[in-house]
Amino acid sequence: MKFYKPFTFWFKETAVWWFTTLFGRLGILFFVAGFVLLFSAYYVFNWSFTESDNILDAHDAYYHYKLVSSWGSPPDTVKLQKELENLQLNCVIYYADLDTLCENDSLIYWSNWKSNPRPALCDYVSYSDSEDLGQRHNIEFPSYVSFGDFFDGKDQYQATLVVENPFQYLLTIGYVDPANNFNVVPIVVLLFAFLFFLYLMVRRFLAPISLIEKRIIDLEGGDLDSKIKVIGSDELAKLSKNLNKLIDDIKNLLKQKERLLSEVSHELRSPLAKIRLLLAMIPPHKKIDKIDKQIKSLDSIITNILLSDKMSSPYSNLKLENAKIGDVIKQALELTFVKNVRVSIKNELSANIDSIKSAIAIKNLIENAYKYGPADSPIYVNAFEDEVFCNVEVVDSGPGIPEDLQKEITKAFVRGPNRQTSGFGLGLSISNKVVMAHGGNLKLCNNKETPGVTITLCFPKK
C-alpha cells in the first residue's frame, strides 16, 4: 500500500500533464499519428502485394500441378529426385487413402526429407487453394492444389500440396524462409524513436511558449524587471520581443502613475498643513477642534486613496519586519483622530508584518467604527493569537452590516447603509487588501448580544 499511493498520485499527475499541457497533447498527437501511419502502411502494402500476387499464385498453382503430373503415376522417383535437387525442394509423397492418422508410416510413399524422416501431413496448414483461385480468375485446374505453411518443430517452411490420385505431394522449399523470421519490433521501435526525436525537436521549437508562460506568472507576482529570453528569429521570437517591450511600457506607466499620485498628494496636503499651522496660531475656540478633526479626516482620505492604489497592484512589495502587535496598535492610535478607544492585548504578541501598512489598516477599522457608532460610544481593540494567526479585532456599537452586504463590503467604494457619513468606501477595502497581502484574511460578523459589528484582521505569525 505504501508503494501504491505514490504511484497513483504520480499516475494522476502524469495523466493530467499529458492531457492538459500543450507539449503533452503534442506527444499524444505524435503517438496516435505514428500508430495510424504504421497501421496504414502495413495495410496498404500488404493489400497491394496480396492483390498483385493473387493472379501469380494461380499461375504458380497450375505450374505445380504440371510439374507433379510430369512425374507420372506412380511417380518416377529417379526423375523426381533429380528435379527436386535442381529446384532445391523437399518432397513427401503420401497415399491419398482414408487413413487420417498423421503419424501412420503407411501414409508415406516416398520422402527426401533428411532432418525429419517422418514428416506429418497434419503439420501442414493451408491458406489458399486452386478452387478459390480458379473461381476468381476463371482458370481450370485438373487436380487440387493448395498453398500453405509446413511446421517442422520450430521451423516454418512455405509449402505446396498437390493431390494427384492416388498420391498427395507435399512440396517445401529446402530452407527456412527468412521472411518467417522477420521481426517487426525493431521497425516499430525505430519508428517511435524517430517520432520521439521529432517530438523533442517540436518541443525545442516551442520552448519560447514555456518561457512566455513563466514570465507572465512572474509578472502577476510583481516582477517587472526580468526579460524573456529571445530564441531565434521566428514568430515566437518576435512575440517574446513584443512582450518584453510591453512589460517595459507597463513599468513606465506605473512609474508615471505613482509620480502623478505623489504630486497630487503633495499638492493636496500642502494646503492642509498650512491650515493646521494657522489654526495653531488662532486663540483657543470651541470650533477649532472640529475643524482640526475635519482636516485629519480629509488627510486620512488622501492617505487611503494613495494606499488603495498601491495595495491594488502586485508590484508594490511589503516591508516585512518582526513587529510587536502592541506597538502597531499604538501607531494606529497616533494616526487617527479617534480618542475613545479601549485596547486589550493578551500576552506579548509579535508577527512578521509591514508595521506601517498594518497600522493604517487598524486605523481604518477604528475610524469606521467611530463613523458608524453612536457618539461617545467606546471602541474596543483586542489582540490575541491562535496557532497560526495574530488577530486584531475592532468592536463597535453601530448598526452592524446587513448579511446581504457582508460579502461585498470589503470591495472598494462599497459603503454601508448609513451614507451620511463622509468617505468613499475605501477604508475597509484597504484593510482587507493589506491583510491579504500578508497572506492573512479579514473576518467580520455582527455582534450577537449587543449592537455593532466585530471585524478581525488575521495576520500570519510567520
What is the count of structural domains? 3
Shape: rod-shaped
Strand percentage, roughly?
Answer: 15-25%
Provide the structure class: alpha+beta
Largest sheet: 6 strands, antiparallel
Averaged pLDDT:
80
> How far apart are the first and last residues' alpha carbons, in Å?
36 Å
Give the strand order of the largest sheet, numbering strands 1, 2, ... along the chain. Answer: 2-1-6-5-4-3
* Unreliable stretches: none
Tell me what you see in this structure.
- The chain is built from eleven helices and 13 strands.
- The protein is of the alpha+beta class.
- It has three domains: 23-181, no CATH class; 237-315, Helix Hairpins; 317-460, Heat Shock Protein 90 (2-Layer Sandwich), CATH 3.30.565.
- The strands form three sheets. A six-stranded antiparallel sheet has the order 2-1-6-5-4-3.
- The longest helix has 48 residues, at 22-69.
- The protein is rod-shaped.
- It starts with a helix and ends with a strand.
Summarize the model shown:
The protein is α+β, with helices and mostly antiparallel strands.
Keywords:
rod-shaped; Helix Hairpins; alpha+beta; 6-stranded antiparallel sheet; 5-stranded mixed sheet; 13 strands; 462 residues; Heat Shock Protein 90; 11 helices
